[in-house]
């Protein structure tokens, strides 16, 4: 797969013009990297920005919160799949023989299926935003297969990618798998309707200690996520926790 040119980057950022220009220059530095391909994977820390490392550390923190809880991990809004790969690695690090800890990602892989008035008027909020290259889910599947091969019990598949509008695919998944207990769910849909519907669908599959993470709560550019949480769980029943590692990401723990 090499159709990057056909995919326009979609980035909502609070960076200054100076920071944006500096990053453009650094992207070229990355492209020009003289490190041999065989050694590149071992040296990706060369290019990892403080913000990106902080996000990885937050995901690690979140995973550890869910460690003592039995059940699967779900991500709603996968896009390029970095979080799924991280969760797979964390499982291999912290609970390598827990083959019951399945990791399931839901995404259209075609961007937002629709938007509503409750999503505000940010320029990036439009149908089809945050799409990926055509057929990317197959490439991501091969990446996740590789990560699984680096951990014990690799003959047991412990991840699943569910393509389509999650408002429909999650309902089908839970109907087909009524035994599902959700130890952790991470929401990165950005928008109101799928977040609300999926929060409603997972409620009966949560247990005490289950962790629900959010990517954009209390963020004026993406109001829909907060409105969905407010309508489904309320804002006064659980402490909305944050980490000093990230200004936007947050989570609640079912108590």
TrEMBL record:
<keyword id="KW-0489">Methyltransferase</keyword>
<dbReference type="GO" id="GO:0032259">
    <property type="term" value="P:methylation"/>
</dbReference>
<keyword id="KW-0808">Transferase</keyword>
<protein>
    <submittedName>
        <fullName>Macrocin-O-methyltransferase (TylF)</fullName>
    </submittedName>
</protein>
<dbReference type="InterPro" id="IPR029063">
    <property type="entry name" value="SAM-dependent_MTases_sf"/>
</dbReference>
<dbReference type="InterPro" id="IPR008884">
    <property type="entry name" value="TylF_MeTrfase"/>
</dbReference>
<dbReference type="GO" id="GO:0008168">
    <property type="term" value="F:methyltransferase activity"/>
</dbReference>
């Amino acid at each position: 797969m090499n159709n990057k040119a056909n995919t326009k980057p979609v980035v909502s950022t609070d960076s200054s013009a100076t920071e944006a220009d500096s990053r453009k220059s650094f992207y070229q530095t990355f492209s020009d990297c003289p490190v041999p391909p065989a050694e590149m994977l071992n040296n990706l820390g060369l290019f990892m920005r403080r913000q990106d490392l902080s996000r990885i550390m937050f995901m690690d923190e979140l995973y550890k919160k869910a460690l003592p809880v039995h059940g699967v991990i779900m991500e709603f809004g996968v896009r390029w799949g970095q979080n799924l790969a991280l969760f797979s690695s964390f499982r291999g690090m912290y609970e390598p023989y827990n083959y019951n800890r399945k990791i399931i990602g839901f995404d259209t892989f075609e961007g937002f299926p629709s938007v509503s008035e409750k999503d505000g008027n940010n320029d990036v909020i439009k149908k089809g935003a945050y799409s990926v290259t055509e057929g990317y889910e197959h490439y991501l599947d091969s990446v996740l297969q590789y990560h699984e091969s680096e951990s014990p019990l690799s003959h047991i598949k412990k991840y699943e990618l569910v393509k389509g509008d999650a408002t429909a695919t999650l309902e089908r998944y839970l109907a087909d798998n009524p035994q599902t207990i959700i130890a952790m769910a991470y929401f990165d849909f950005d928008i109101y309707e799928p977040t609300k519907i999926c929060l409603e669908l997972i409620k009966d599959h949560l247990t005490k200690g289950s962790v629900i993470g959010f990517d954009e709560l209390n963020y004026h550019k993406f109001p829909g996520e907060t409105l969905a949480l407010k309508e489904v769980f309320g804002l006064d029943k659980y402490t909305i926790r944050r980490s000093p590692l990230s200004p936007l990401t947050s989570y609640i723990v079912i108590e």
